[in-house]
Amino acid sequence: MPMPSEDSPMLEQTTTLLDSNGCSDPLQKIYVTSDPLEGLPVLLLLFTTTYMQKFAYSTDFGTLVRGKSTYPLDGWPLSVGVSTLLKQFHPGYAKSTLAYLGQFVRATVVESAARAAAGGRKGGGASGGGGAAQPREVVNTLVFAKQICETMNIPKGELHEHFPQFLMESLTLL
User: N or C: which end of the chain has fewer CB within 10 A?
Assistant: First the structure.
């Protein structure tokens, strides 16, 4: 005999009470299931790369903060929002988004290294302690990807599939 019975509202009421008490994990909850959207990872890449320039990495907080007080976004709320959006779709969407962000980081690092080798090093990078300075977009994208993985409980090994491990380790030196 199933307990509770199918006619009983006990399970629904218990879920409502647990949600209102804070005994559930809203970041792991699937709110709405939707049809596949093929261009979502690319759209998130474009959105993310547009806003990564407007953030600054704060060593005091260990996260992304607004570059100027007039910017409407902050780092953690944005990463939680993107994670929640990705959670509503197949896990392949999160993997594709991380792959696109990894390609962006690699291309930006290669371009920055080519510029530095040509002697036209552009300022505005973030230093990694003893290593070469990386552009702000690279550091911010790495922090953003790390926050998405923490929020979505994606293992670090999967993160290292898309991002060079030495760059991820350089975040600890900031």
Answer: N
